[in-house]
């Protein structure tokens, strides 16, 4: 997966090594090394003896796999249903897509051209089954195309390694004198069944043969469900800013949604970069929508977050989380729908500041003040009926209760004087206490109860003060006092 | 003694001409941790179940807490927006004022940020009046600089009214309210008392033994100061 720009020259033998059981082994070799007789899987020290000026680098297998995964997404430009095959292949389900690219032969040429522009060498084949395509791509002619009727004939000449078997089974078949796939096909099925009845799939030539010939299904399961409502714009040359194209894309998508009688709650913007990567951007909405102006506005401040790389030449906009929307008539007096306006406002806010910043606080059944309130994401649906608190609560709560220093304690009730935020407060009147016990089913053992007081100081400020614990509760030392909220 | 009732009607229009609800009002809070200004602003919002958009910057939330809906009452839904910068607070308030279905917009800004200038307040005031949505800007630790707010208040807490049943405990809240600049009404100082059950604010002149001067002029006279 090295790009052309930083690949070493072809005439220097170079291998990539990986860790084996007895020291590093060869993971892959370039053409010069292969000509020198170096095979993948052999030990690097042995190969050094064979070829003294051998260059060795360590293989980045995880990186290769990740790059191949990205290539799977990039290959969606040809057909929507494709998957990574092992560590060195892609399987593309081109059923129904080839005629869009001028037939199978033209499609293969186009794919090879695009991949070579990325600096990748590719071997391509079209076949009715996964196994046949695998074998033809690795052992068949260049850009092989194989129909369903000549499957047996074309595969018969290929070596038996084309059956995707493990090395031990390949060795066994070679020793039995079965060197080609055709030879395996000619053996009576009963004999093969008798020999390989209980072996697993990678060691079972019979099952592999059935997969190649299509007698055993091998479906391609793509990594995520195929997009359903997508519009895309192909650009003549790479650009860096998608802003001028978005209104038209949104209008197209909303047309499609309108025809389908649907609205979406999520939009995915995908940008196919010229260097083979893709960038994603998603926005969500609080209500089903198919209003092109509104959808376009949600992307306004987010477009600078995408990384255009060296530019991109394809923009796709996909609608997700679809749901049915009825066409509603707007008010006859020209005014707009109130609910819709509010939903649009929430979308704009959530798109700009994120889901967490925009919340809808609702009450919950709990007596602990900080637990009595729950923050729902505003994009979620509105809550049901809320419980009503039994006694008076402040209109303002502090994130963290702040401890106060008691200057003058009295045996009952709140302290007569205390210092909070470096100011002395003298309590003139108070109401309380209201005792709130810890929730034993949730709190840690040893959590102390709270006695809440509404106090008013000499300036008239009304604070919500609580004492944590009692003198004799055996859960720590002297009780401490905290300010938790402010009354109006 | 000047007695001024501000009884809210269902439409939200106060009976007095010139004291319009649907405009930008700026409130300067006397001390940082004082909920009196919020109580006054909430009491002045028009009745109904329309949601209130409440925007806070980070410092305001850290220093003075967050609105507690158990105390405000579950009947009025709140949409809470927590942002970091004052510029984002202003952006959100302005965006919210485009939406006529809100019952009000409350923004809290800490200190004197450079973005909160005459232009920003003018935009808020015009949008608020165009949409018919009341807008309250709560300012903490701030100086009353140049501003286009139609009403500018300075509000602090005062010792509450006596409790009807318990002399030891605080009763209905009272606030010291100073309208120090207003486009429609005459500035003045009052002591406001809030009747929670009737959801009604009464303003009583701060200096009780002074009679109303006959030459004080009509209420709609443009205030100077």
Global structural class of chain A: alpha+beta
Whole-number tally of structural domains of chain B: 1
**C-alpha termini separation of chain B:** 23 Å
Number of strands of chain B: 11
Overall helicity of chain A: 25-40%
Supply Rg of chain A: 35 Å
**Neighbour order of strands in the largest sheet of chain B:** 1-11-10-9-8-2-7-6-3-5
Biggest chain pair interface? A-B, 52 and 53 residues
Task: Write out the strand line-up for the largest beta sheet of chain A, numbering strands in chain order.
Answer: 14-15-16-17-18-19
Textual characterization of the structure:
The complex is a heterodimer of chains A (488) and B (225). Chain A has 488 residues and is an alpha+beta fold. Among the domains of chain A are: 14-59, MutS, DNA mismatch repair protein, domain I, CATH 3.40.1170; 123-226, no CATH class; 229-327, Dna Ligase, domain 1 (2-Layer Sandwich); 396-486, no CATH class. Chain A contains 13 helices and 19 strands. In chain A, strands 14-15-16-17-18-19 form a six-stranded antiparallel barrel. In chain A, helix 5 (130-139) crosses helix 10 and helix 11 (246-260) crosses helix 12. Chain A is elongated. The model of chain A has no long low-confidence stretch (mean pLDDT 86). Chain B has 225 residues and is α/β, with parallel strands linked by helices. Chain B has one domain (3-210): P-loop containing nucleotide triphosphate hydrolases (Rossmann fold, 3-Layer(aba) Sandwich), CATH 3.40.50. Chain B is built from five helices and eleven strands. In chain B, strands 1-11-10-9-8-2-7-6-3-5 form a ten-stranded mixed sheet, with helices on both faces. The two termini of chain B are 23 Å apart. Chains A and B meet through helix 13, strand 12, strand 14, strand 16 and strand 17 of A and helix 1, helix 2, strand 4, helix 3 and strand 5 of B. Strand 12 of chain A pairs antiparallel with strand 5 of chain B, so a sheet runs across the interface.
